[in-house]
Amino acid sequence: MLRRAGPSLRHFLLERNSSAGHSSYSREAKMSRPVQARRLEGIDKNIWVEFVKLAATYSKVNLGQGFPDFPAPDFLREALTRTLSGGNHMLHQYTRAFGHPPLVKVLAQFFEKLLGRDLDPMTNVMVTVGAYQALFCCFQALVDEGDEVIIIEPFFDCYEPMVKMAGGTPVFVPLRPNPPKDGKLMSSADWQLDPAELASKFSERTKAIVLNSPNNPLGKVFSRGELELIAELCVKHDVLCISDEVYEWLVFDGKQHTRIASLQGMWERTVIIGSAGKTFSATGWKVGWVVGPDRLLQHLRTVHQNSVYHCATIAQEAVAQGFQRELMLYGKPESYFVQLPKELQQKRDWLVQSLDGVGMKPIIPEGTYFLVADISPFKSDVPDDPNSDEPYDSRFAKWMVKNKGLAAIPLSAFYSEAHKNNYTNFIRFCFAKEEATLKAASDILQKWKQEKTSS
Ligand code: PMP
Questions:
Q1: Residues 118, 124, 128, CA angle at the centre, nearest 5°?
Q2: Average pLDDT over residues 428-447
Q3: Does residue 248 have a pLDDT over 90?
Q4: pLDDT tens column, 286-307
Q5: According to its UniProt record, which cofactors does this protein need (predicted)?
């Protein structure tokens, strides 16, 4: 039986406080110590929390947050069902902290093929709670107080707060648009780094660069030449590369996704990040991974074992079975990694046509399932407010979801605070959606355009 220690402790405290001339309750009320850790200063806002709530409240059609509304492939769902109902009840228990053995083994086999080098599943691969936790492990493990980390703008928004939380300083370098002169639609390939500008960002304080190819939000697939330039600078300045490749299979028009880790001098300094959520259209499973040299991964393991420790066994087992299937079908037409980009390419083309048809000029993405479009012809409905600190595209996206029921994400959300007003004429759509969803979005835009022309 538990002893009730409460009354005597309370008695002691009351005695002590009354002898000091005040009660314990007034002492509590007066507590003025700051509760928030300093490293959280300025990073409390999150675009997804705000826009997901807006979409849930107002949207009829949601092309905002990046997730498919079509089902994950049958073979993956069947793998999960088998895992749940099979005889191995141990799959409901903890597994190895750094990755369920069948999953790290098959990931190592897969990446051996992709990188053309031998990998040790136990030291060169680690499973994480989605790519998000993989990124968190990288920044916590590799970035120190005072380190600089180069981030290419526009970028997946969590890189900046994660660098800051680790005590580092983000240094931004932009992709600059060069619109084609012949009146053709812009492509994500027209957004490029200026080599001299990129080189100027490297210094002895630079610890790492974050590369995201294919890139969210533009859909840019960095060319081999662009990657060679980044690699050369990394080697010259002894800089690490955090390579976020979650959209590695979502590349269109026969383009090739080049892995920077496969370039000269890069394996030893690169951590590759992947996501089963993107790879198998199952974002809610939150299974991700890192692949890289042990000299880097050993530090990521320290962060992992002292934070989440481990990710759901059952999801890891099903993803392992998914990869085993894909390994068998590698490069064959039945492979999901061959079929998914084909299907997404059709969806991309459909949305490109439909946006172009209403005058919302799309930037044709070479990869991912995102597309950025120019909202200029629709701006008259959402007049500018020179007194507002909020970028125009953000107010436009909010107005659109509230008044037209169509959710999208402003491009400024993918820029740093200092540069959020650089490009405010664009919004990002996610096209990993059923035909009916894309058609409903197109209907909204067409109706809107008609209303504009008849008014
Ligand atoms: N990196 C990028 C570029 C992303 O777009 C996302 C998801 N939107 C992530 C990482 C996080 O992936 P996960 O859902 O596996 O955590």
A1: 140
A2: 97
A3: yes
A4: 999 999 999 999 999 999 999 9
A5: pyridoxal 5'-phosphate
The reported pLDDT for the residue numbered 384 is 84
Atom of ligand 1 nearest to the CA of 134: 16
pTM of the prediction?
A: 0.93
Determine the distance separating the centroid of ligand 1 and the alpha carbon of 243, expressed in angstroms.
12
Measured in Å, residue 132 CA sits from the centre of ligand 1 at 6
Please say whether the beta carbons of 345 and 353 come within 8 A.
no
CB 347 within 8 A of CB 438: yes
Ligand 1 center–CA 440 separation, angstroms: 26
**Cis (ω within 30 of 0) for the bond into 161?**
no
The confidence score (pLDDT) of residue 6 equals: 47
Radius of gyration over every alpha carbon of the chain, rounded to an integer in angstroms: 25
Give residue ranges with CB within 6 A of ligand 1.
66, 130-132, 156, 212, 216, 244, 246, 275, 277, 283, 286, 288
Share of the chain above pLDDT 90, in %: 85
Site to substitute for ligand 1 among 51, 216, 272, most atoms within 8 A of C-beta: 216
Contact between residue 313 and residue 152 where contact means Cβ atoms under 8 Å apart: no
Nearest C-alpha to atom 8 of ligand 1 is from which residue? 66
For residue 396, report the distance from its CA to the centre of ligand 1, in Å.
25
Helix 47-58 / helix 392-404 crossing angle, nearest 10 deg: 20
Q: What confidence score (pLDDT) does residue 1 get?
A: 37
In the structure, what pLDDT confidence band is assigned to residue 4 with cuts at 50, 70 and 90?
very low
